[in-house]
Design brief:
alpha+beta; Immunoglobulin-like; Glucose Permease (Domain IIA); 2 domains; 10-stranded antiparallel sheet; 4-stranded antiparallel sheet; 5 helices; 21 strands; globular
Length: 327
């Protein structure tokens, strides 16, 4: 009898152990189920959905720009690069967005062009319809005083095509990244009085030159300001363009200042937005004191006034170009 009584506790312990093991097995999740996570997880969401990339959001300032206009492209994700009319364009980071500036050259034929933004795993494509801009035709004037200095319509056209444009294009080959500027753009003069419109086609007989800049009325010695931060890439005195200064703002964006009377900065010098860089004049092929102001964006001739308005509005949220106070 004593042996049987001793077996009872052992039997009870054995049954209890089996029940514990069964309970543990039942409480474990099945191998083909994903255990819930503490936060941010939907049990009904498939694993392949969790790995799908987010579709980028890309916006353009216009799908129907005119010749000489600037396009602003904005993305909420970092692109690899962009393409327009077979040419690449870079993006830069600004205030949590990725921004690109694309020049629709004054000389680009009106029509339909592809614009693509390339991401690591996909691309976004848009069709851009470039509109024709009506550029007025005016006379290519050579005064008796300029004739005495050896200027003629043919000599002006030949020198620009074969010498001076070659020199300044060489000074604008670099595409620096990131840009030197981080803020909005200024006008180059404290008072903007346009005396020669952008894009005018100036003719004399068979000679035809397009005026790819703004002529701004300015008395001799008027302060000329850097329109934004950058580095001086060119400073020289040319036969037609007179004393000429070019500033590299990065991204292949350059501002040009012609017919100056004197320089206030030197080549390779860093400049800040609003800094006095030169004084206006009447040098080179010039009928009266003024400032010729141009902008180039990776070789495209763009209207500097439109550029400033569009970029300041689309990138920096301003109503237009900033103006320096008259000193």
């Amino acid at each position: 009898m004593s042996r049987k009584r001793n077996l009872v506790p052992l039997l009870v312990l054995g049954i209890f152990g089996v029940l514990v093991v069964v309970a543990i097995v039942i409480s474990r999740p099945a191998d083909n189920k994903i255990p819930p996570k503490a936060e941010g997880w939907d049990p009904g969401q498939r694993a392949d959905e969790l790995n799908e990339p987010k579709t980028p959001s890309v916006s353009l300032s216009s799908l129907t720009p005119e010749q000489s206009e600037t396009l602003v492209v904005v993305s909420d994700q970092e692109p690899v690069t962009g393409w327009f009319n077979g040419e690449p364009f870079p993006f830069f980071a600004l205030h949590g967005r990725w921004v690109a500036l694309v020049g629709v050259s004054a000389k680009l034929a009106p029509g339909s062009y592809d614009l693509q933004v390339v991401f690591p795993s996909q691309k976004v494509a848009e069709r851009v319809e470039v509109q024709k801009r009506a550029f007025p035709v005016t006379q290519l004037v050579v005064t008796p005083e300029l004739e005495e200095q050896g200027y003629t319509p043919s000599s002006i056209a030949e020198n620009i095509a074969l010498r001076e444009n070659v020199m300044i294009q060489r000074a604008m080959e670099r595409v620096a990244e990131p840009p030197y500027f981080t803020g909005p753009f200024y006008n180059p003069l404290a008072s903007m009085n346009v005396v020669g419109a952008y894009g005018n086609i100036r003719k004399s007989g068979d000679i035809e030159l397009q005026h790819l800049g703004l002529d701004l009325g300015a008395a001799m010695g008027t302060n000329v300001y850097a329109v934004n931060d950058g580095v001086v890439s060119f400073e020289d005195s040319l036969t037609n363009y007179g004393k000429t200064l070019i500033i590299d703002h990065g991204l292949g964006l350059y501002s040009l200042y012609l017919h100056l009377s004197e320089f206030q900065v030197s080549e390779k010098e860093e400049v800040k937005r609003g800094e006095v860089i030169a004084r206006s004049g009447n040098t080179g092929y010039s009928i009266a004191p003024h400032l010729h102001y141009s902008m180039k964006l990776r070789g495209s001739s763009i209207d500097p006034s439109l550029f400033c308005d569009i970029v300041n509005r689309e990138v920096f949220g301003l109503a237009g170009c900033l103006q320096r106070k008259i000193e």
